[in-house]
């Protein structure tokens, strides 16, 4: 409930069960709660359908629907989920319900108020995204070893820039750093070879769900 006694509502684009395709819990059956809306317009965005539309759900209905799938892991994503104020109480409520909760966020909005039980997966915007000026580098100090930073890399320039960010901010000592190729733009093998050649202090990943199902919404 909010301060006025009304039940918290969220605009939801989709809510579905799939395998987590990225980050620490890749491979686990996971319920995805995709919130509608995003203030960024990354050039490689693969969820532009979540920018607008969606349907209003009460927090209680979201919790009930999530519980109905019968799995522990829940990922709140977008769009940019933190653009909706009701995201924060939803995250806390999912934790209270006993779920293992992760948040996928662009890094353009503060993560300071996110429930500490939530694993924060922060997407650092590379130059090729067109949104690197939106990165909140001041939030790097808030990261803990259980959080993750993700760099989505489109080309060699993005790769070099990302390595520089890791060095400048000491990111590899704060949390796990993930490097992912932009699907369809950079060959995964090329990125893997660069990482190996440089002994980069990062974890390579590809999007498992795209390997399995391609660009199919809701999977």
Give a short overview:
Helices cover 24% and strands 24% of the residues. With 219 residues, it is α/β, with parallel strands linked by helices.
Largest sheet: 9 strands, mixed
Overall SS class? alpha/beta
CATH class: Alpha Beta
Q: C-alpha Rg, in Å?
A: 17 Å
Beta-strand share of residues: 15-25%
The main sheet orders its strands as: 3-1-2-4-5-6-7-8-9
Going by CATH, the architecture would be Alpha-Beta Barrel
What helical percentage do the residues reach? 10-25%
Overall shape: globular
Distance between the termini: 31 Å
CATH fourth-tier homologous superfamily: Aldolase class I
Q: Quick check: average pLDDT?
A: 93
Low-confidence stretches: none
- Which sequence of SSEs, written as H and E, runs from N to C? EEEHEHEEEHEHEH
Number of domains: 1
Briefly note the CATH topology name: TIM Barrel
Helical segment tally?
A: 5
Number of strands: 9
